[in-house]
Amino acid sequence: MGRNDNPYAKFENAKLILRDELALDRTVLANERTFLAYVRTALALLLAGVTFVYLATADWFAVVGIVCLAIGAVSLLIGVHRFVRMRRMLGTVRAKARTTAAAPGSPPGPNADAQ
């Protein structure tokens, strides 16, 4: 999958019904949970790396600590990148649905009565 491939582009955005809105909400929550898992893993690796470096009595022990620090930093960057990318894709889907639903002659959206 390329960088600009949006997996949600194949769906017709003009017809987001309540089921689709709820699915998007679940996807947003799953994205947040995944991001928090990346952060938790990165913090554990960073703390382990600091501990190994601080308590190093042998050179290989310090190397393990430095590797843990590097992997922790990389995993945090990957988590942030994936979170932001997915958030943009979901925002694009919702924005297209709103602009299409607001166009004259289009059917009202699921929250038309709430306004």
For this entry, give a set of tags.
rod-shaped; 2 helices; 0% strand; mainly alpha; 115 residues
Can you give a write-up of this model?
The chain is built from 2 helices and no strands. It is mainly α and 115 residues long. It has one domain. The longest helix has 44 residues, at 59-102.
Average pLDDT for all residues: 83
Order of helices and strands: HH
What is the gyration radius calculated from CA atoms?
21 Å
Distance between the termini: 39 Å
- Bulk shape: rod-shaped
Number of domains: 1
Could you tell me the number of beta strands?
0
Which secondary-structure class do the elements indicate? mainly alpha
Which stretches are poorly predicted, pLDDT < 50 over at least 5 residues?
none
Share of helix among residues? over 70%
Largest sheet: none
State the helix count. Answer: 2
Proportion of residues in β-strands: under 5%
